[in-house]
């Protein structure tokens, strides 16, 4: 498998960036993960739009026009041209002497590579999830490579034998460390509204479209931790998570939610799978 770095296709052991790259020093970069099911891009425009939005928000000058072609090349160079796969894209501000302000003349560092995604039986996967405090920053809408709070949280979950975290800010659920959270109460699907406290997930958007198309009612509003006793289903979504059923939620001390039903999640999974085929 080859990866793309600043205009060249290289094997991973030959791909290097400067120690003065701002992604290394500051986490000053953004990334995107775009799925390709059976080799066909899934919601490519949405992923490109989010990437452009993030670049604009942190003022990295970069023309995204070449990315589609590079993604297709990354897939074929990794033997994934007809598979279920995803492409990781990372764009940092580039190399410059260390200053907190943005340097004037930095050339963005561009990295791209493809990796396989396993869709087989994802609907049978059930996660145990740790509820923990959302101590991330106030701009979670930017898909930044500065993911320390996310990795600290996820590490705590994995080390404790859980599969993911569900983050709580001011008494309500925001999202997972690398996934969007959904709740079902009384046949209505709930998810946190878009804005600075969550990443605008593309899978989130697809799930809400499916709800609309299947006539499942939904509301974009935060779910309070106190409402958990009325929650019947919880699921997490994302490009690498697809739609994953949450079997149980746990605080550090005890189990605080056990899945009651699963019908709505299953209907959404089936329709999601159909749309990727
Ligand atoms: N994670 N929320 C967070 C914090 C995420 O990191 C992700 C994706 C999502 C889901 O977004 P989408 O449906 O567009 O993939 C929500 C990526 C895949 C990652 O970090 O690997």
From TrEMBL:
Keywords: Pyridoxal phosphate. Its cofactor is pyridoxal 5'-phosphate. It comes from the Bacteria. GO terms for cellular component: cytosol. SUPFAM superfamilies: D-aminoacid aminotransferase-like PLP-dependent enzymes (SSF56752). One of its GO terms (biological process) is carboxylic acid biosynthetic process. GO terms for molecular function: catalytic activity. InterPro entries: Aminotrans_IV, Aminotransferase-like, BCAT-like_C, BCAT-like_N, Class-IV_PLP-Dep_Aminotrnsfr. Belongs to the class-IV pyridoxal-phosphate-dependent aminotransferase family. This is D-alanine transaminase.
């Amino acid at each position: 498998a080859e990866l793309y770095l600043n205009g060249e296709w290289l094997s991973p052991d030959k791909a290097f960036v400067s120690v003065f790259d701002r992604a290394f020093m500051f986490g000053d970069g953004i990334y995107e993960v775009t799925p390709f099911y059976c080799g066909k891009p899934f919601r490519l425009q949405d992923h490109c739009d989010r990437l452009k939005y993030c670049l604009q928000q942190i003022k990295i000058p970069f023309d995204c026009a070449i990315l589609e072609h590079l993604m297709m090349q990354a897939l074929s160079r990794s033997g994934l041209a007809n598979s279920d796969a995803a492409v990781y894209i990372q764009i940092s501000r580039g190399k410059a002497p260390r200053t907190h302000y943005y340097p004037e003349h930095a050339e963005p560092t561009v990295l791209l590579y493809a990796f396989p995604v396993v869709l087989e039986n994802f609907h049978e996967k059930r996660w145990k999830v740790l509820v923990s405090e959302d101590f991330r920053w106030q701009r979670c809408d930017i898909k930044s490579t500065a993911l320390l709070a996310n990795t600290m949280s996820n590490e705590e979950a994995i080390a404790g034998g859980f599969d993911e975290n569900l983050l709580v800010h001011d008494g309500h659920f925001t999202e997972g460390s690398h996934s969007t959270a959904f709740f079902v109460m009384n046949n209505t699907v709930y998810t946190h509204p878009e804005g600075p406290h969550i990443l605008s997930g593309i899978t989130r958007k697809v799930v809400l479209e499916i709800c609309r198309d299947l006539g499942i009612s939904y509301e974009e509003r935060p779910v309070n931790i106190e409402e958990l006793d009325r929650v019947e289903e919880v699921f997490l979504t994302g490009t690498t998570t697809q739609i994953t059923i949450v079997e149980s939620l746990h605080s550090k001390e005890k189990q605080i939610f056990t899945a009651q039903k699963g019908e709505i999640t299953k209907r959404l999974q089936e329709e999601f799978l159909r749309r990727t085929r």
